[in-house]
Amino acid sequence: MHAITIELKKGRGGPSTLACRRADGSRTWAQVHPFLPTHDLTHCAVESALGMTEGFFGLVADGWELDDFAKPGAADRLPAQALWAEHIVGLIERQVADNAADMNEALALSLTVPLKDGAPVLSDKDLEMIDRLRRRLLTRWQGLPAGDTLRVRFPASLAGV
Question: Which domain holds residue 48?
Fold first, then answer.
């Protein structure tokens, strides 16, 4: 997987922006809905902790533009891992499960898209790592003054955030 730098700039009286700088120097960016910075940071935590290479940020690292995700038919072009990542993020944001067994059951019920290596089976250790990384990222975002930019290297690690 190619690494990227995620840059979330907190809006000052307007929308925040998400920019991603790829290793080759190319960049994609977009203004984002107020809900999306925390959602995107949750993606960063999930995809990093689980080593996902074809989730949202993995696709951006491989050349997808942020606008590509909103184009008609984009969902049909997403790899299965990206769909699983989105469902995991959604379940975490809705606080559906307190442990791996409940999370795996919720995932099985929410989406039945086959992966080449099978569906992810999360452990309590996976959820703990996701939670710790997500909390650290969200704390940094929430403490960021308007107009400042949060920069995170993806894939992220606890040591790096």
Answer: 4-160
